[in-house]
Amino acid sequence: MAAPYDLTDDSVVVIIGSGAGGGTLANELAQKGIDTVILEAGARHEYDSFVNDEWASFSQLSWLDNRTTSGDWRVSRDFPNLPAWIVKAVGGTTTHWAGASLRIQEHEFNALTNYGAVEGANLLDWPIGYDDLEPYYTKAEDKMGVTGTNGRERLPGNNNFKVLEAGAKALGYKTCHTGNMAINSADYDGRMSCQQTGFCFQGCKWGAKWSTLYTEIPKGEETGKLEVRPNSQVLTIEHDDSGKVTGVVYVDKDGNQQRQAARIVCVAGNSIESPRLLLNSASSKFPDGLANGSGQVGRNYMRHLTGSVYAIFEEPVNMHRGTTMAGIIQDEARHDPSRGFVGGYELETLSLGLPFMAAFLDPGAWGRTFTTALDHYNHMAGMWIVGEDMPQESNAITLHAELKDAHGLPIPDVRFTDHPNDVAMRNHAYQQGQELYKAVGATRTFPTPPYPSTHNLGTNRMSERPEDGVVNKWGQAHEIDNLFVSDGSQFTTGAAENPTLTIVALAIRQADYIAEQMGSGTI
Amino acid sequence: MTTVYKAPEGISRRDLLKRGGAVGAVALLAVSGSTIVSVDRVWGMETTALKPETMATLIQMARDIYPHDQLADKYYAVAVKEHETKAGADETHKSLIEDGIADLDGRAGEGGYRALGWEDDRVAILKEIEDTPFFQAIRGGLVVGIYNQPEVWPIFGYEGESYSQGGYINRGFDDIEWI
After folding, report:
1. How many distinct structural domains can be found in chain B?
2. Torsion region of A397: left, alpha or beta (phi above 0 gives left; psi -120 to 50 gives alpha)
3. A322, B157: Cβ pair inside 8 Å?
4. Is residue B174 part of a domain?
5. Which residues of A touch B67 (CB under 8 A)?
6. How far is B9 from chain A (nearest CA, A)?
7. What's the pLDDT tens digit per position in A28-76?
8. What is the residue range of B134's domain?
9. Is residue A8, in this structure, part of any structural domain at all?
10. What is the chain A residue with the closest CA to B163?
11. Is the minimum CB–CB distance between A114 and chain B shorter than 8 Å?
């Protein structure tokens, strides 16, 4: 049923990447009868092949191609070649994600207007508002089966959530529940409900958590209008004299270089690879990279400020049992500059298994201060901080001056330094998180530093004016009508919410626009 | 080939001591020929690339870096055995380890590192070298080497794989009672 398309077929839409953006866009286009080819750098692992083992799964799914880091973020010291904890596989990071599906708040779409200019930050209003996206949020929630939306039940709370909830009550927080999760609380869309297995990050072996791997992609393939080519690493995007893109050069599963012609190219390789591909596609016509007349490709890299708080209690918690992200507190997600920073943050439960706790609780630490924490692993509760970080031009994905990948192309360098607003917000969140756990009897708390980035955003951002960004409000390159960006790199600002739902909503909306433009013969 | 195995029957602690094995000050590990044997004879490890005394010191060093009193030496032995394997294939790595251990022993004075009876005294020496490539190679390897052993997980209350048991939906995902 999967449609095989000819390499010279220049009527197809080529999508690079198969995660939340690429996988969703592909299915939406295929459902409309549009011929679509996905080129996915990673392999196809169906969900029964996932493993409940942190390091084994990390090896199976992670994007481990060499990258470098710079800037003064601690990740650069502790994990110098692992800036991001994202996936190289069919389904992209939707195999690994925790499932939190939150709408960006109305005021966050207009960050510059509502926060005012922030020194050192490159803030901008999105060229779309909440009202533009609202109908697509509903469609995305229905597609993904998001709990607590449109009549769907929420998930039951696990041990880790119960500790969070008790602490929230003690601190007087009002909005605390088990979240809006793309994890089935009941059978939905041919997939079963959550079995509280505790390995969300390792890929859900039940298929209870939404991933494009076993939803969008097979549905698209069933139409006969979508071909997915795994193990296909795109090297460059090509264009003609008029500046229209005409196809992509990639290395296929057998290691041979191929060229797939295209009517439209959509880039959805996440916020490191997507700008890298545009930069690596520089030509005499586009000497600074495709779609980079503004110089903004790769810039404004955001990662959410993040951080975790773990705590030890007298009695057991067993946080590893059940959904990894089992609940949320939203009271701090408001914009309230009286706290000493603009924007807000969410607090969401998180648990790691013992192997990852040892690696991430305090990377590099040793001795009894560290080991006595792990000694009480089963008495630990944990939460993750997800807050809006400031876009900064100097936080950027750039091409490494010397190091090359296996195909001879420069590898990406990921530069990041916290903005003072990020630091102020993280310190506030650390304090609140530690107070929360102390309020329910924690004997020891740990303000844990950010992990390698899972929310990578902003490096091909949307803007009203071409000089401020890379793509317009449809994710269409300002400079090239038949080139689109379809992943989180198009975010103008990061907002406080986990980004996947917005990526999916934008992809559904973009599919409508592409179909309309193709129908009218505009592109 | 590095192996960890149940020590052969018939080697008594007295035998080991008689054979002149360098017994650590804490008297948990004995070195005999090319083999390190725990004094309770539960396990042993043969070394070919590294000196057995070096391996015994590495095991003590591993415990001092990530001390868990509830973990037997065999888990630390498993955690550092990658260095024996690497040393067998790579002279540079062999030198890194042997030179690093010799340096530790030199800093410890007469009797060497393992002869220091107090953990604090050994840790003070480790603090002096914690920025060296030797220390970082040992410490870095231990993060996975110790904590990714499924055998240690139950000791910390981590239950590991759960899919085959149907997850925790009927096995205590929400069984907390004290909150």
Report:
1. 1
2. beta
3. no
4. no
5. 367-368, 371
6. 34
7. 999 999 999 999 999 999 999 999 999 999 999 999 999 999 999 999 9
8. 4-165
9. no
10. A197
11. no
How many domains, chain A? Answer: 1
| pLDDT of B42 above 90 | no
Is A349:A327 a contact under the CB 8 Å cutoff?
yes
pLDDT, tens digit, for every residue of A45-58?
Answer: 999 999 999 999 99
User: For residue A41, what are the domain limits?
Assistant: 13-519
Count CB-CB contacts under 10 A for residue B52: 23
Q: Is the ipTM of this complex over 0.90?
A: yes
Partner residue opposite A378 with nearest CB, options B123, B156, B178: B156
| Digit-coded pLDDT (tens) for B112-171 | 999 999 999 999 999 999 999 999 999 999 999 999 999 999 999 999 999 999 999 999
Query: pLDDT tens digits for A252-265?
Result: 999 999 999 999 99
What CATH number is attached to the domain comprising A120?
Answer: 3.50.50.60
Establish if A6 belongs to a structural domain. Answer: no
Instruction: List b or e across A200-219, with b for residues whose CB sees 16 or more CB atoms inside 10 angstroms.
Output: bbbbbbbbbbbbbbbbbbbb
Q: Is residue B109 part of a domain?
A: yes
Out of A51, A197, A315, the one facing B178 most closely (by C-beta) is A315
Residue A2 is assigned to a structural domain of this protein = no
- The backbone torsions φ and ψ at residue A232, rounded to the nearest 5 degrees and listed phi first, read -120, 100
Please say whether the beta carbons of A213 and A91 come within 8 A: yes
The C-alpha of B20 sits at a distance from chain A's nearest C-alpha, in angstroms, of 32
Give the A:B interface size as CB pairs under 8 Å.
120
Put simply, whether A55 touches B (Cβ < 8 Å) is yes
A80 touches chain B (CB under 8 A): no
A300 and A389 Cβ atoms separated by less than 8 Å: no
